[in-house]
Amino acid sequence: MNITKRKPSPASILAATALSLACCAQGQEDAASPPPANTVELAERQQAEAALSRLSAKSAEYYKNYATRPQIRHTILRAPEILLSPAEELEQEKSVEPPQRQSRARTSRAEFTQPDVVYSKNGVLDLTLEAAYARNKIGEDPVYLRAFNGKLVGPTLRVKPGDTLRITLKNSLSGERWTPNMMNTLNEFNTTNLHYHGLHVSPNGISDNVLIQVGPQQTQQYEVHIPLDHTPGTYWYHPHRHGSTAGNVSSGMSGAIIIEGGLDEIPEIKAAKERVMVLNQIPYIYKNTLDDPTSTKENPKPQKKFDLKEGRIEAKYADYIFSPRDWAALGRYTTVNGVQLPVIHLRPGQIERWRIVDSGQREMIMLKIIAAPKAAPIASPEIKFHEIAVDGLALGKAVEKSTLELWPGYRSEVLVQAPAVPGEYYLIDDSMTGVGTISGQDKPLSYVARIVIDGAPMVMKWPTNEQMAQLRLPAIKDEEITGQQKAQYGILLVGQKPNQNVIFTIDGKSFDMETARTLKLKDVEEWTVSSINDVGLVTHPFHIHVNPFEVTSIMAPVTTSDGKVIMENGQPKMQEQLQDGPVWRDTVKIPGGGFVKLRTRYTDFIGTFVQHCHILDHEDQGMMQLIDIVRKLPKTADNLPKPPGVGSVAADFSLPDANGKMHSLQEMQDKPVVLFFFKGHGCLHCAQQVTAFMDHYAAFAEHGISLIGVTSDSADTLMRALADSPAPFMILADPQGVAFSQYGCAAKGGLLHGTFALNADHKVAWRTIGASPYLGVQDLIGKLAPNPNLGPQTEK
């Protein structure tokens, strides 16, 4: 395991990008900043800060007692096999929350609705996603939540390998000037960004860069190039700004991405009707009576009663929304594409393909299809799932399952066939004892959708395993493995009793911008990822960006019915939980007290991204770690190339302009040159630097000084940027970061800004490298223009 402590200088670019409102990756401002906080805003601030403080205390108290407290039992209402009388049903259901009441599912008339769909055209998908408050309904409840384009679920994006996503993220949410920017706490819900979950694409620049943050009233351009050899399948997008991820995703800010091809071309699958199902668990506060989180045995308090006009998710309610037991207490439904208890119609014998995305922020889901009760005990045909892909990656076969186990971030593609006879069924989230759940408490059965089998029968065929086999990614063989990595996820206790607190960690540390795990491009490594917690057997879903992995083992401790670990020869007895493996994924559960073995290839992309727990409030509170993938260097070199020093000859390069024509530094022979490196046209401060050079171009030309800009944008992106705002000087594209590296403007895979003043011999007269672009461009003329009054220039 290579964990490096970053030096302040390289890290500052990441800290600036992720945490500072002055960062270069910040979105571009659309409007003036909000006015200073008034009395109402200050009151909101005080409420939010108090709620976040109570949330921290409530979570700490919960987890401190996680291992020792008695199992929390819920009334688990099993689905009746025989239809009950109205009186019996009323009596049975009166003690449980609405999602557990079959009567609600049986009488639902809600229409199953597909999300809006946006297709790529001529290789490009252009879309504006506006993040703003929107009024909608979940069942009969009015809600006022953050949303993408006004809907409870974002549009489905359909593209092909080789296409480009060009997304404009417009943040129309109100400002939160008063909100402190606190590392590893839930904060600033109105600051956001985008992550393209599961895509094997660049993490740099304005691609899948989760270190970008887009503040209120700002706009950010994203351009994501999908490789020609990208695996077709079901992926998804959602906000991933550290601190507000849980607040954003829990509001329904997510949507599916479908990369077409692969399984789609098999005739039997192509003939099946396709449904996209984005599952959300939206924990809004509305008309609720809840336990006061500050209530104790010594100081009992009455329950807190809410009577809001509309359902809301806000920081001031965080202590009733984001702690481990809150979902069950709120009594909310798991929605399908924003719809509560939708009705799915199938014809007898019909086969459908369901693309299921678990977009929930913290709860596990056990999907199952059960028959509706009848007046007499007559057995109904069972409907099973035939799983053909997980996390967008084809299994190479169909795996028959009665239950789909979904954890936050999982996707599953299944074929479902209706029985040959009409009837009714329910899609449920099945019950589970506390030993196997995230919260450690019993999970009751709840209803997700109603399934009606009716209409004219259909005759359809199943695909064969032989047809699907070649679509599975190649297995990673033992002899390919070049190294090992270990990562330990854990909720740890800190401080002294009785005032201990809990922290959310990877490798014993909460997230910071100074520590990164360094990996090398083209390596093939085996990881052992464990869940070892001071507080008991807490399961964490592990997710890593950019590169998928092949899971070879999921080991979990064997426990008794009350959650005690069975020991064997002084060690916990372990059992294998992986079935039908090995399996390719991008997200996988790590059983509490257990570990996962996985193998992965680091291909195509250097850069900085993250691994983290996909219980998103765990991630926001610190269970995340930076990953740096760097190019392999010759054995004689231990570090990245050093930047050219003052007095040294600048390295030559060969890079394309916007039209693809190659250029080198030698073209400017016998001319002084200012060479500057910037991250891209989607970067606000970079754009300011380019504009400053444009403004002073005539003065540079008057003194015979040439200007060359080098951007991490692709040539295509550069062409479009220059079409809108032409530059009078040469700008070259370096998307692979080759010249950036030559000039020391790459640190552990992250790109830095650099400005170099080169004299007529192309020796470095002056340079600066750092987190922010150099904006005092007019001063560079004096560093290079022939002037006997100028003394020797020193390095900054």
Textual characterization of the structure:
The chain is of the alpha+beta class. A hairpin with a 5-residue loop joins strand 47 (753-758) and strand 48. The two termini are 35 Å apart. Mean pLDDT is 87; it is low at 7-26, 29-37 and 787-796.
Rounded to the nearest angstrom, the distance between the terminal CA atoms is 35 Å
**Residues in β-strands, percent:** 25-35%
Rg, alpha carbons:
28 Å
Secondary structure: number of strands: 48
Shape: globular
Computed structural class: alpha+beta
Helix-residue proportion: 10-25%
The overall average pLDDT, rounded, is 87
Largest sheet, described in full? Answer: 7 strands, mixed
Number of helices: 14
Low-confidence segments, ≥5 residues, pLDDT <50?
A: 7-26, 29-37, 787-796
